[in-house]
Amino acid sequence: MRGSMGAGLAARAKQRLQRSLNLSGANSNNVPKGHLPVYVGVRHKTRFVIPIAYLNHPSFQELLALAEEEFGFGQPAGGLSIPCTGEYFLNLVLFLSSQ
Q1: Scanning 2, 16, 76, 96, which has the fewest C-beta atoms within 10 Å of its C-beta?
Q2: Gap between the Cα atoms of 34 and 51, Å rounded
Q3: In Å, how far are 26, 40, 76, 81, 89 from 48, measured between CA atoms?
Q4: Whose CA is closest to 82, among 65, 59, 57?
């Protein structure tokens, strides 16, 4: 019983995190100071706005290396594309936000 309760709490926390990270539209005016938009997904991209400080974390650096391999440095202005699943990205951001 306790395990399913913990799983439910984690799922709700992940949903709240996703709502707070997702900002509709591609308007750069929606990005608060100290944050940047990233586009996450393999086929379909979802836009998230994350704190710039996350870029320094070793786990995020691994995603940046994947993005470089996949897309190179010449990504279009307006956001960084990251080739991973939204689920993986949300788990990483949840981990980073808890530190």
Answers
A1: 2
A2: 6
A3: 10, 7, 16, 10, 10
A4: 65
For the chain, domain boundaries: 8-98
CA distance 47 to 90: 12
What's the sign of the alpha-carbon dihedral 64, 66, 69, 71? Answer: negative
Q: What residues contact residue 53 under an 8 Å CB cut-off, 6+ apart?
A: 34
Q: What is the pLDDT along the chain (99 residues), one digit of tens a residue?
A: 445 545 555 555 555 555 555 544 445 567 889 998 888 887 888 888 999 999 999 999 988 888 888 777 666 656 788 888 889 999 999 999 888
pTM: 0.67
92 neighbors 59 (Cβ within 8 angstroms): yes
φ, ψ at 12 (rounded to 5°): -65, -40
